[in-house]
Structure formats: structure tokens, C-alpha cells
Amino acid sequence: MAKATKTIRQSLSYPSHYADYFAENATLFNRVVAFYFDCLQAHEGILALNNKEALTALEKLTHATGANPHPIMPLTTLAPDIPAMFRRAAINAALGSARSFFSSLNNWRVRKEKYEARPARRGAKKPFRERPPVPPRTWNKSVPFYASQWKERRDHCILLKVWTGSCWSWLKVHTLARALPDGFQMGSPSLVHKGDRWWLHTPIEKKFEPPAKIVEQLMTDQTRICAVDLNLDQHLAVCSVQTVDGTILATSFIGNGPEIAGCRKKLLGRIARNRRKTGIIAEGEQDNADLWAKIRHVDEHIAHLLSARIVQFAREHQASILVFEHLGNLRPEKGTYSRRGNTKRAYWMKGRIFRYAKYKAWQVGIITSRVNPRNTSRECHRCHANVCRYQQGQPESGYAPGAALCFCPQCQMRGHADRNASLRIGQRLIERYKDPQKEKPHALARRAKRESKGSGVGISQDAKSKGRPSTDRARRGDHANGHGTAQEGMRRMGARPSDIAHQLRLHFE
Ligand SMILES: [Zn+2]
Description:
Layout lengths: L1 E12 L4 H25 L8 H12 L21 H34 L25 E2 L5 E2 L5 E7 L4 E8 L9 E2 L3 E5 L2 E12 L5 H4 L6 E7 L6 E7 L4 E7 L2 H22 L10 H28 L4 E5 L11 H27 L3 E5 L16 E3 L14 E3 L6 E3 H18 L7 H13 L6 H6 L2 H11 L6 H9 L6 H4 L5
Helix pairs in contact: 1-3, 2-3, 5-6, 5-7, 6-7
Bound molecules: zinc ion.
The site of zinc ion has 8 residues, from loops.
């Protein structure tokens, strides 16, 4: 069974003194977590057990019962009458932290041993410098409410059992925001402190039959693939749906790039002006906090809207696979503070849209994949020859990066350049499985790198460059008129990552 999880975040409405109770409750919880973390440090062997057994073992160590009247490290020294489910939540939280801590400690030990086993290259060997990981010094975990710690959950309210600082009591809080969706199973809610408010986060989970693997799906000619070309300029996302045998079914242009980029750039410009006025920025303190928050929220909001639209489009056309390009490296850009910052954020946005679309697609049973971005916008989707790219009203020749239209001199294909790119992205996924040699050129580069490092086998410059003459040419093409003017800078934001494919290869996952 495959599963999809997400978290419903509800803001709460409560009398103001409840905030103190919640804080007391969280403090107690974190003390108990710290206590169990210490227990685990003292009894490291427990970590070898699975979670259920470890929980039993820890309770035996700390909790007095009729059969176990004198535990070794009684929890009652910390606080009397802690509810069992509160204790268990703390134990599980401590187990999680301890597992993560000890696994990084082990990794550190392994690295140290490896280093010490290696012979010195020249002269006396330096001692191993890397510091070991330290256990957490402070604890700031949100309190989960296991069953029996909460009750009477309705659409707009819930009762929580909370330590108020003097007693355990049931508090009624009102929840705002959307109700829990159908078809999902609810996990334990937790109280999360964010800003000056407390929120209720509820993880929900859906189980479903996992979709067939991409390889299997591509065996059928009728499988529909939705390919997405993400841009930073005109249309933020261009999606097209095609079948494996090549029938193009639909295209959709989503989003208005210039508006978003313009809004963000305006805010960044305002920050720059404010900074210039003040001159000094206080250390460790966020300047222009409101403006930054606004930028963050706008980006977050748009990434969610856009990814939701992409998945919706894929569903409408019964696509079962979603394809994106890998992201290129971000090329540093010259220009004002707001321009540089804007490009950077627009680039991050692409990654975010991919991540959001991926999890949203998975929830409706669509698999997401990524392909090599090299030349996706240069090749014609009909005959794979190089296309000309031009602006409306300009001559149909040459290649203007970021221009809207394209024309194939070989097969006379005319169309929107981003649509052409998205079709190529889809085709590339199909090609990968039909002809596995063709896709994944980066594997070679990776191997070359590893060999030259590990076995000491030198690889000549010649051999290295052999694999990528076309990319080099492509890059020169893009750079030819890629300097200077402001307009050019804006355009470059929309340039395909193809122009940086050579760096990219090494950064594939
Ligand atoms: Zn063509």
C-alpha cells in the first residue's frame, strides 16, 4: 500500500490565559523528553530495539507498577501523575531524537576511524579535526496529543488535556480554517507555537493502491503524460498532455510571471532603499521583517496555487505521469540588489513548485519524474532539429533566449516556444525508457569524476570534453548577446537551463 500524508494546520481561538497554560504544558513535555533522552544515553542498548519494544523497556526503567514497584530511574522524581499517553508521546519524541543523534554520532565515528586508518601522505599526520555531534542542549518540541489526551473533536472545536502549571485540566479551544478532508485518517494533533499564537497541527494519512511504475506505464501507448515547462517570465508554467505514442492532447499556459516578478522586485527595492537609509543593520536581527515576510508569503502562496493548477490540469486530462526538467544551477547575475534577489527567488520558486506539485500529484496517484533539461527548448518536438526562436514581429532566424515563438526550418513547425519545450520534456521521458542510453548523459560525467578521484586514473581534458560539444556550442550561442541591458537580464531569467547544462550534470541527484 502506498500512502500520502499531509498536515492540516488550524489556527486556534482561545482565552488569552490559555496561552500560559499551553506554554506550561510544553515546558513539562520538553522536560520529560529530556529526561527520557538522558535515560537513552545511559542505556544506549535500548536503541537496538524497535520502537514498540523500546517503549516497553523505557517504561520498565522509569514507571512504577504493581509488577515493577521500584524502577531504576523513576519519572515521578520529575513530576507526579503524568498521564500515560503524555509520557508515551514524550518517549517517542525522545526515541526519535536519540536515534537521529546516535546515528550521526556513529557516522562521525566511522569517518574518524577511516581517517585514522589512512596512511599519512607526507610527514606527520594531522589529528582528526572534525568535532563530534553534541546531544541537544535545549528542547523545544511541540506537544502531540495522543488519543485520550484529546476528545470531542468537531469541525470547529476540540477539548485538550493540558498541564496548566498546577493541575491537569480539559481546555476547550476553537479551531479556525478548513475541516479535515474525507478519505484521510487522522493522526495525533499537536500544539505548535508559532509567532505569538498557538496552532493545532493534525497529520492526516491516506492509503491507496500504488500506481504502476513509470517503466510499466510507458509500455502502454495510451498512457498520458503531462509535461511541465517552468519559466520565470511570461507564463510561469506551460503544461502539455501527450500519449506515449505521441498524440498531443492538450496544452495549458498557467500563471502570470511578470506580475509576480514585478511585485517581488518592488518589495525588494523597498528593502534596499530602507537599508540605504539606515546604513547599519543590527546583527542577529531581521531588518524590514514585514517586507521580508510579505515576500515569503507571496512566493509560498503562488507556488501552492501554481502547483495545484498543474496537478488539476493533469487530472482533468487523465494523465498518470507528471514530468519536469531538472533545475539548472543559478547563474549569478549582475544588476541592482532587487534584480539579483528577484532572480534568485524566482529560481527558488521553480524548485518549490516542483516539490509542491510532486506531493500534490502523489495524493491523487500521479507519479512525478524529472528529465535532463539539456536543449529542451532548442529542439523541435516534431523532428528534433534545432529551432529558431524569435519575438513576434522579429525575423524568424537565430535564437533569442526567452523569446516567445519558435520556428523549425526543417519541418516548418511553428508555435509557442514554451509549449514546444514542454512537449520535448515529455518526449524525453519516453525516450529514456525506449532508449536508455540516450538519456542520462550525466552518468558518464559522474563516473569520470569518481574515477579521477578514487583510482587515480587521470582523464584527459580531451576525453572529458568529448561528450559535450553540443552543450558548449549551445552555451556560446546563448552568451553571444547575453550581456548588458536590463531587458537582457530579465530575459535571461527565463532562459532554459540548457545553457548551463555542463555544470548541471554533476549536480543531478
Ligand atoms: Zn521540426
